[in-house]
Amino acid sequence: MAKPKVAIFKFASCGGCQLQLLNIEDKLLDIIGAIDIVYFPMGKSENLEGPYDVGLVEGAITCAEEIERIKKVRASCRILVALGACACYGGIQSSRNWMPQRELEPKVYEHWEALSSTKCFGIDEYVPVDLHLHGCPVDREELLEVIKGLLMGTRAYLRPHSVCMECKLRENECLFLKGIPCMGPVARAGCGAVCPSNGAPCSACRGPANDANVESFVESLKEMGIPDEQIARMFRRDASTAKPFAKVVSMYG
Amino acid sequence: MAFVLPKSELRRVIDELSKDYRVFRPVAKGSEFVFDEEGEPAMDYDTTILPPKKAFLPPEETMFTFKRETFHVEEVTDEKPVAVVGIHPCDLRALHLLDKVFTGEFVDPYYMRRRQSGFVVAINCVKPCEHGFCTSFDAGPGAKEGYDLLLTDLGDKYLVEVGSDRGKSFVDRLGLDSASSADVEKAKELVEEAARSMARRIDTHGLVELLRMRIEHQHWAELEARCLSCGLCNVVCPTCYCYNVVDKLDLGLNEGARIRTWDSCLLLEFAEVALGGNFRRERSARIRQRILHKLLHFVDQYGEFGCVGCGRCVKYCIKKIDPVEIVEVLRGGA
Amino acid sequence: MAEKRVEVEYLTRVEGEGSLHITIEGDQVKELYINVFESPRLFEAFMVGRRFDEVHRIASRICGICCVAHQITALRAIEKALGVEVSEQTKKLRELLALSGLIQSHALHFFFLGLPDLVGHESLISMASEYPDVAKYGLFLKKVGNDLTELLGGRPTHPVTTVVGGFTKLPKQQSLQEFKKVLEEAKGYLEKTAEFVSKLEIPQFSRQCEHVALWAENHYAVNEGRLRSTEGLDIPEDDYPANIEEWHEVHSNAKHTRVVGRDELLVGPLARVNISFDALSSFAKEVANTLGFKPVDYNPHSQHLARIIELAQFIDQSIDIIDELKLKDEKPVEPEPRAGEGIAVTEAPRGILYHHYRLNRMGFVEWANVTTPTVHNVHAAEKDLLQLVPKIANKPVEEIQRACEELIRTYDFCLSCSVHLTKLP
Q: C420 CB near a chain A CB, below 8 Å?
């Protein structure tokens, strides 16, 4: 079997999700042995043109040029994987979507009239995506599972349920029950509950869990005494364009 | 046959057991407790985050490894048997229920091996925990059977009751003094007192028949709005036994391991089948499944209730969804 | 006269998206600019309205490679605005955390992005077959950085334990002690790397400009210090805005900085080693000696060497901190929201990083400003190119292009970092 030709693309992002591939130091040489990375500007100088078997796309779509480019990328890849919170939901910069561009742009750019910056979304706002690999950043283990799945032609098992499941399995003290607003109950797992396991509340960077009951969760936040503006901020983070989250932001923001 | 163990000697029990077993004991973790293989035993714990079933049915377990090219399969077995020290009567009864599931008609070799080679030191509850309702199922606060040794806290010492030959020979090895009849009597009184002060209870009288008539009840829909379907109640339950099985391969796709992990019937994907079909798409159906499985279907299948009233599911639930309350509501109206 | 155009549409082995455009007429450069075409993310805009406790987590997302530096710099600036004084233990742990990020980033750049140029390969992937040992050293050293970040921060990229006032979770003293063994092992690989690199040919090219770095008495400054330069600058961090200004050059899309009253500056490993050479550990000085490095060195290609010297320094410095630390259980200092303004300058892997925030009385961000090392360096790189290109203008375009790309890569640009500051003309 020929090694699958893999391309790694970057859109608006911090580079941290591509970096996770290089961060699998122990297995990096094995990965390179199993797949043929033919397009990866951050990591190599000789980059081949498509078509590719697999495209791993990091980053959000935040300007007109990127809309054009992601469509070309889609057309060049048999399987397209959204790599990380930015590609899945727009990432942290999607939190700006609730402010008018005309107010945002002049805060950073003097010559804002020259910008073609748009509201910020994940790539599947514009193109069909075959697999979403969530997280800010993506989890190295999950990334490995996805690569193996691609090699086998199967869909990797990525935990779609709440972070609470993984958190409890690690026998962490529940932050929420201690009065710390933690997004675990409505957030998608797969990270190993890394934040609550380290004493930090979950910020739901992976977006909503399967069948997340956001309404009921928000009720609990209110009972806890969390003000509306904070509730809006909690949902207006890395996955704020996810429908159930966006709804809360619009309602309380 | 009863003995006494000075509290200062508890450490010796654990050290002695450690020679032959991996010894799980309750230890403090922040303001909570967990069963762990290391750390100072905290025998007056109220409850643990995960139940001690984890010693016999680990949350994640490699069942066997395999090589695809040669079809070579190698079973993974433990190096050392497990002992649990300080298991509460409710969790002890939960093991008895899991025995029915895993060592009855269908034998689970992994679980069975650990149970058969395992050692259990139970401890009676002398002060009721906040969320428990064990008396509903005769699961506490005193243990009746299923232990090798049973402790009762008498203040400066434990009363040690022997429940098996293995327990007896271990006591002989420790060289414990015999208990006085006053000690035995005091332990009995303490447990009875604890039972009397248990505030929470499910009335099991006629419950099975009642639940059969409450399968369609508006309360399930009310719970649907409340439940977060986070699955946490399943994870902390001492009698939940569903698991998921996945294969993990190496990058060469040749060597791999078959792994099973605890699963949860509250999750949407639990009852999902090929082509996206799902038998329990509604949250209400999943909540009902959990409650009815414990209080109705388990009885149908094994002749006993599948809940032991440990109270973990309500203690750790953010929405405080409580089986005691649910049964009260279901009893209350049509 | 014949015109030559060098167009690099996508700079490779550089973090982020940038391009290079040069027009040459004879031996004169008509036009030269590095363009950052990363899309606008608008960090300083959407940071406005966030509460003090969220800022460092958001700032972390500016860059996945130097996330640790962004976190620590944001935390220090916010803490200054709030008047929060953290414990000595927190300072030490933060320095160790910063060092872990520096080790990771330097190993990534030197072995993955930079070294292929020195040995004539297009990537570490292709290099690994010819020099498997060197690839192994690189992977090991990078993992050392990542593992140390994970030990302190919970995970390597965007660590989670850092909060205003301290840490949500402390590492175990024993784990740190055990990690020392790994650090010691890393020193061995570093020695071998230095020997390997000492035999390689480093392009000879020198251009004097003002090198700026943090400096501290008897200490290799990382998270705190005074700003010093090779031209006599010596100021506290709070004076940064008065001394380093932003400006725009007509031919470029990127924002530039310069020292007030003077010109462009160079920040990063070379500037640091030049300015704090005396503070290097004896092992780091040995490595410098093996590499034939002597301060003050104005060859931008020596930035590669400076990274190896610094890897030695950072590993020693980490070992020292672990030796000094006697961890006690400490909760983060609880901040009281108040109005205030805070400036922090730290040494990120690529050089000085400046965060500046103004908070309202509820502790929400009213105004934010971040200047990253790459923004500081873009103009120095352009000036290097302006000096280099006429000397090689008679060579074929491909050769000019390669030489320019190699020079740019010595800077280890982080364009994701710089983009939110890019100003369009």
A: yes
Q: Would you state the pLDDT for residue B295? A: 98
Alpha-carbon gap, residue C314 to C289, rounded angstroms: 17
Amino acid at A163: V
State residue C394 phi and psi, 5-degree precision.
-85, -5
ipTM of the complex, rounded to two decimals:
0.96
Structural domain including B296 reads 207-332
Rounded to whole angstroms, the Cα distance separating B241 from C177 reads 41
Smallest Cα–Cα separation from A77: which of A125, A17, A5, A131? A5
User: Whose structure tokens read 């599972």?
Assistant: A145
- Provide φ and ψ at B149, rounded to 5°: -135, 150
CATH, residue A74:
3.40.50.700
The reply to whether A144 and A202 lie within a common domain is no
What does the pLDDT look like over C134-169, one tens digit per residue?
Answer: 999 999 999 999 999 999 999 999 999 999 999 999
Contact A233 C146 (CB under 8 A): no
Q: Nearest C-alpha of chain A: how many angstroms from C35? A: 15
Q: What is the CA radius of gyration of chain A?
A: 19
Place of tokens 């649910």: B326
Residue with tokens 């990253």: C372
State the sign of the Cα–Cα–Cα–Cα dihedral B295, B299, B301, B304. positive
pLDDT at site B56: 98
Quick one: tokens of B119?
């050692």
Q: Is residue C367 part of a domain?
A: yes
Alpha carbon distance C150, C10 (integer Å):
32
Sheet with A77-83, edge to edge strand ranges = A36-39, A5-10, A52-58, A77-83, A131-133
Q: Mind giving me the DSSP string for C110-139?
A: IIIIIHHHHTT-SBHHHHHHH-HHHHHHHH
The verdict on A36 and A147 lying in the same domain is yes
Chains C vs B: touching, with 3+ CB pairs under 8 Å? no
Report which DSSP code applies to A207.
-
Letter string b/e over residues A18-49, b meaning 16 or more CB atoms within 10 A of that residue's CB: bbbbbbbbebbbebbebbbbbbbbbbbbebee
Cross-chain residue pair A43–C46, CB shorter than 8 Å: no
Dihedral sign for Cα atoms in the order A235, A241, A247, A253: positive
For residues C332 and C166, the answer to whether their CB atoms sit within 8 Å is: yes
Domain with C295, as residue range(s), is 43-419
Single out the residue of B67, B48, B51 nearest to residue B59, CA to CA: B51
Rounded CA gap, C161 and B311, in Å? 32
10-residue stretch averages of pLDDT, chain C, 425 residues long = 87 88 91 81 93 98 96 98 98 98 97 94 91 96 98 98 98 97 98 97 94 97 98 97 78 71 95 98 98 97 98 98 97 96 98 97 96 90 94 94 95 75 36
Neighbors of chain B with 3 or more C-beta pairs under 8 Å:
A
Which residues of chain B lie closer than 8 angstroms to A177, CB-CB?
316, 318
Cβ contacts (< 8 Å) between C107 and chain A: which residues?
A: none
In this structure, what token pair is assigned to residue C20?
């290079």
How far apart are the C-alpha atoms of C142 and C139, rounded to whole Å? 5
Q: Tell me the one-letter amino acid at A52.
A: Y
Which structural domain, as residue segments, surrounds residue A15?
A: 5-152
Q: Give CA–CA dist C234/C225, Å, rounded.
A: 10
CATH of the domain at C305: 1.10.645.10
Dihedral sign from CA coordinates of B110, B112, B118, B120: positive
Residue C122: burial class (beta carbons within 10 Å; 0-12, 13-18, 19+): middle
State whether C425 and A114 contact (CB < 8 Å): yes
Element of type H or E holding B10: helix B10-18
Instruction: State whether A44 and C125 contact (CB < 8 Å).
Output: yes
Interface of C with A in 169-188 (CB under 8 A): 169
Q: What is the pLDDT of residue C249?
A: 54
